[in-house]
């Protein structure tokens, strides 16, 4: 899915933390023009699991907000956007709409081990409640939702990464890979680039939440000594709860063995 000469951003930090590290973002919000391969992959997922991936609460302000977002994102013919699915199929990014701190619309074609439609109508804190060691994230969620919808604050960006045994962009629970990874060659580096976009609203604070998913073979990074060290140190710093939540227990063993062999 990636360009052959490009890799996802390397954003691994030591020690690992689930704390919300959002920074102001003034660059491009999306990857435009959207690549045909990404849009086709989205259509395939929606045709298969659309009811799980896409949902919205009927609201009079929903369509105008989505059309405004499309205009800001330079989507062609923004006036034709009628639903969250319409907008998602114009972008490589998955999209969600928060209104007054509540998830009112979502179209996540490439979720990370959860069912997007099940979160509709939830406040941000409840959405984050399942994250291991996520107490700081949950506690900060009301403030995050408030800042996300603040037009004066502008856009923010954060990253989430993991190691997985699947090369798929979608990590929907129904796609769980039953095979047991044995070596670095069986593993993949997965990154979500999460970007917020505040939207004007007469009924409260609203914001768009964009998530770009990228996956590459872990071996592409592991060959770099500095990156290998950082990945190893970061996973070694994870608590047992985080390792279980991210399904990294067995993967940690593989990385430890590979790290020892490479040292």
From TrEMBL:
<dbReference type="Pfam" id="PF11927">
    <property type="entry name" value="HODM_asu-like"/>
</dbReference>
<protein>
    <submittedName>
        <fullName>DUF3445 domain-containing protein</fullName>
    </submittedName>
</protein>
<dbReference type="InterPro" id="IPR021848">
    <property type="entry name" value="HODM_asu-like"/>
</dbReference>
């Amino acid at each position: 899915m990636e360009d052959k000469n490009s890799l996802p951003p390397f954003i691994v930090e030591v020690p690992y933390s689930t704390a919300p590290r959002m920074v102001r973002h003034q660059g491009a919000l999306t990857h435009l023009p959207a690549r045909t391969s990404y849009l086709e992959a989205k259509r395939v997922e929606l045709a298969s699991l659309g009811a799980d991936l896409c949902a919205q609460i009927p609201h009079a302000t929903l369509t105008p907000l989505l059309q405004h977002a499309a205009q800001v994102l330079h989507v062609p013919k923004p006036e034709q956007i009628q639903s969250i699915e319409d907008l998602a199929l114009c972008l490589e990014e998955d999209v969600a709409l928060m209104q007054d701190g509540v998830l009112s619309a979502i179209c996540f074609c490439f979720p990370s081990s959860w069912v997007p439609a099940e979160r509709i109508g939830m406040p941000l804190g409840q959405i984050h409640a399942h994250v291991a060691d996520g107490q700081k994230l949950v506690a900060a969620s009301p403030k995050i939702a408030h800042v996300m919808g603040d037009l004066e604050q502008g856009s923010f960006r954060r990253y989430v990464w993991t190691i997985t045994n699947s090369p798929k962009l979608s990590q929907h629970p129904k796609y769980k890979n039953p095979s047991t990874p044995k070596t670095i060659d069986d593993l993949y580096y997965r990154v979500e680039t999460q970007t917020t976009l505040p939207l004007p609203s007469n009924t409260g604070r609203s914001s768009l939440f964009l998530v770009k998913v990228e996956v590459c073979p872990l071996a592409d990074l592991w060959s770099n000594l500095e990156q290998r060290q950082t990945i190893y140190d970061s996973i070694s710093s994870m608590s047992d709860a985080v390792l279980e939540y991210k399904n990294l227990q067995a993967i940690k063993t593989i990385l430890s063995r590979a790290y020892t062999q490479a040292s």
